[in-house]
Amino acid sequence: MKKIVFVLITVCMGFTADAQNDVVTKLFNDYYDNPDFTKVSVSSKMFELFTNIEPGDENEKDILDAISKLKGLKVVAADSVKDAKKLYTNAVKKISANGYDELMEVKDAGEDMKFMIKETNGIISELVMVVGGNKAFFILSLYGDIDLKKISKLSKSMNIKGMDYLKQLDKSENKEGQ
Amino acid sequence: MRYRIIFFSIILFVSSCEQHNVVSDFIENRNTGLSLYFYPSTLRMINIDRNEEYDKMIRDVEKARFFRFDSGQFVNEDISKLIKDLQENGFEEVMSVRDKNQDIRVLALERKMPEFVVVSKNKDELMLLEINGIINVAKIPKLTQTFSQNGFLDVLNLYGEKKKK
């Protein structure tokens, strides 16, 4: 009996873990065969491989710390698509409907940007960023154990276009601190 | 009898230690447009500016090999077979990048000194990069800062044109 309960719990936990990233995975799959979109996927194994690296200083320790807690990353990006704003609105609608909380929104003349998180008991398990411009559309999903401060720091130090949007997280951190 | 057992044990041990290299098998019967081999000394040698962070970043890389093949040297099935063979040898896909011009897959073998194989294909060519060892990712920020300050680096591009500031 104990064994059956244990198996059931394990199976349920597996489903819960899968469901966490369901909506973004679905969006990712929607664009998978569309050549106008760039798709990037990084698995947990990639992050695990960097856990044995010895940090040289505090800054590097923070970077490795942030990386080692990640379980995956997915990006869908396009810089020249029709209806980018519509894609943005649809994506935000779908993600919001799946239990993600809005963390921050940035709107300017050129593009809209929304950060959403999946949080349970104060622990952020997923951070989703959606950007929609006149022609540009971008979704980034980071999942694992997310520390917003460290992710913001990581994006500041890495000179990776697209990730620079995550620098905005600093503002949301400051807001929360006030 | 005892000697025979010891002899066979040694043979078995030696053959299990012998690493079957899938990339070497792949390049064996193909003409490579470009082949580059890097060892710790050559990796340090290309650091003409003597960038300290670069040296630290590649400290745990034992060897790297790069091969480029023109489109006549492979068909899609060859690449599928290469990836399948790597997976059968314990490699796991850890990253993929796909867009209209390029299909990049990164496979890794977890061990004390990990191995990475990057398979990058576009309509004109196939590029293979094999890295024995690990690049210290924590050094990338300092390195990219140095490179971007000097205007060298604009390769980490996930999203379109850089915004004008």
Molecular structure report:
- The complex is a heterodimer of chains A (178) and B (165).
- With 178 residues, chain A is of the alpha+beta class.
- Helices cover 43% and strands 29% of the residues of chain A.
- A six-stranded antiparallel sheet of chain A has the order 1-2-6-5-4-3, sandwiched between helices.
- Chain A is globular.
- Mean pLDDT of chain A is 79; it is low at 1-20.
- Chain B has one domain.
- Chain B is built from six helices and six strands; from the N terminus they run H-H-E-H-H-E-H-E-E-E-E-H.
- Chain B has helices at 2-17, 22-28, 40-45, 52-57, 76-88, 140-149; strands at residues 34-38, 61-70, 92-98, 103-109, 115-121, 125-133.
- A six-stranded antiparallel sheet of chain B has the order 1-2-6-5-4-3.
- In chain B, strand 3 (92-98) and strand 4 (103-109) form a beta hairpin.
- The longest helix of chain B is centred in the N-terminal third of the chain and has 16 residues, at 2-17.
- Chain B is globular and about 40 Å long.
- Strand 1 of chain A pairs antiparallel with strand 3 of chain B, so a sheet runs across the interface.
Task: Offer a few descriptive terms.
heterodimer; A: 178 residues; alpha+beta; 7 helices; 43% helix; 29% strand; disordered N terminus; B: 165 residues; 6-stranded antiparallel sheet; 6 helices; 6 strands; disordered C terminus
